[in-house]
Structures are given as structure tokens and as C-alpha cells.
Amino acid sequence: MISFRDPWVILCYHGFTSSQRETLDDFCFVSREKFERDLDDVASAGFRFVDLKSGIQNLALGCSTGPLLSLTFDDGFASVFDVAGPLLQKRSIRATCFLPSQLLEQGRKPWFVEVLSAVKRSAKSEFTFFGREFSLQSDTDRSVANRMIQSYLKLLHPLAIHLLIDDLCSELAVSRSCNSPELRLASRSECELAASTKVFEFGAHSASHAIHSQLSMAEVSKEIDESLAWTKELQRGENLFYAYPNGRSGDFTSFCISSLKNRGVVAALSTIPGWNLSLRHRFALRRFCVGPRTDVRKFLSGWRWRIKGF
């Protein structure tokens, strides 16, 4: 395998918010101002923006013209098109959005958004869930409750998560509906309009955003097939890339990888942090997830010493 000493970095964003308070400082939502600073910091650190296809091609050839960086957005939040779109278009940067097809087609929210919304909207000052007592007296308390409940639920099968969110909403005395515009996923027509700008391309991100390691092999196959078919139709062509829901080590299996290879997917993206230096992890490409407190400038400026010895 040829060593690729200039790194290819992939950043993973999710959605945007006008106020971290409104989204309980959730890791998945950053401000427009932070994203714009990040774009400037990438350029200042000497990285060149490329799309995913170009990044793969450079790794395959074992050559580069310096460090490369690609932008990705998971989960299909409508705010990505509204906020990031104009900033990317102004800079002639192409990015990839990974879409959970069934959620977008049915106008549903990912379960973690339902948790965030319920905890945010509740008028209660405390509650009990999973045998643990949570305080809701401050924004910090609500932020902690949101993070901890999400961590618990990630370990479960999607059907169990669905039932437990019903229980959570009942305990918090709120409805399951979530009408916040910042938490809304894009519609198919919005995705088609975004595609026409040539700023965004799309990748598959499962059908229902179920963590694959919690599913049976038949369920994994269904998630992958539905997502690939929907995304290919949206792009009116071949789908090249897949991003695993949640995407950490242990969230996908060798069966997931072989399934994607058998279906002609070129590469798959994880959220395991790291630099991409070769095609060794072609079906578990490394990404750095960016949250409201992630200092992109700091970790990009130190890439030369961080990968020394590879």
C-alpha cells in the first residue's frame, strides 16, 4: 500500500442553529458564524477543499498537491442548504450530504432530535428516566439530560427506542411532535433544488438512521438497499458513498462492509476520528465530527507533527 503523507481530512457537520441555547448546546448543531470561521481556518491551515470523489482518487494514486479536506453533512437537516449553501457557493466548495432516505421521504425526525426537543420543551423541573433522576432547572441541566439519554438509547434496537421515547414524552408531559424549524429535515424537493446548485452531492445514510450493529443482517440489508436506491434516484445516477449512522467503532460490522462492496459502493465513511493517508480504511474512512466547541483551526494547524511517522 502506498503511503499518502499529505493527509486527506474529512469534516462531519450536521445542522445549524441561531442559538446554542435553543438546541441545548447539542453537538449536532453549530452556528453560521462558527462554520464561516471554520472555512477560513481550513484555508489558513493550508488545506485545499476537494469533493469526496477527488479525495478517493488522490488516495488511489498515492499522490497529492498538499493536504486535502472534504466537507460532509449528515442527516439531511434543511438548515444545511439554507445556511451552508450560500457560504459554500461563494467559495466554490462542493460538499456531500448523507441522507436517511425514509426519514426525509416520510417527513419524520431522527430519534435523537425527538429527545432533544422533548427535553427542551418540558415545563417540569425534574424527571426520572431509566431509573435515574434528572434535573431540568437550568439550561446546563437540560443539556446534560439530553446527552445522557441519547447515550442510553444508542445501545438499543430502533423499536425499543421508539417505545422509550413515547415513555420519555409522557414523563416530561410533552407531545412527541417537534415543530422547531432548526430541527427540521429537508424535503425531497429541497434536496433536488440543492442538487441543481452543483454545491451539494448526496450519499446514502441508511433508511431510518438505525445504528447498524443493533440490527439483524436482514434489517441491515433493507436499510442499505432502500437508502442506496433512493439516493441514486435523487442524484439521477450512481451513488458512490455511504455513511454509517452514528459511525463510531462498533456501530457497523464486517457484514455491513461486505454488503456495501457487493452493491458497488465506492467507499463508506465512519465518524472514527483520524487522518486518511491511504485506502486501507476505504470502507471506514475517518472523519472528524465538528460541534459547537470544536477548534478546527487548532487541530488542523498541527497536522504535520500529528501524522509524523506514518
What does this structure look like?
This protein is of the alpha/beta class and about 300 residues long. The chain folds into two domains: about 10-105 and about 180-305, TIM Barrel (Alpha-Beta Barrel); about 110-170. The protein contains twelve helices and twelve strands. The strands form four sheets. Strands 1, 4, 5, 6, 9 and 12 form a six-stranded parallel β-sheet that branches. The protein has a two-stranded parallel sheet with strand order 2-3. Helix 5 (about 110-120) runs antiparallel to helix 6 (about 140-155), helix 5 runs parallel beside helix 7 and helix 9 packs parallel to helix 10 (about 255-260).
Structural topology:
Layout: E1 8-13, E2 15-16, E3 29-30, H1 32-44, E4 48-49, H2 52-61, E5 68-74, H3 78-91, E6 95-99, H4 101-106, H5 111-121, E7 126-129, E8 132-135, H6 139-153, H7 158-172, H8 188-196, E9 200-204, H9 217-235, E10 241-243, H10 254-262, E11 267-269, E12 288-289, H11 296-301, H12 303-306
Parallel strand pairs: 1-5, 1-12, 2-3, 4-5, 5-6, 6-9, 10-11
Antiparallel strand pairs: 7-8
Helix pairs in contact: 5-6, 5-7, 9-10
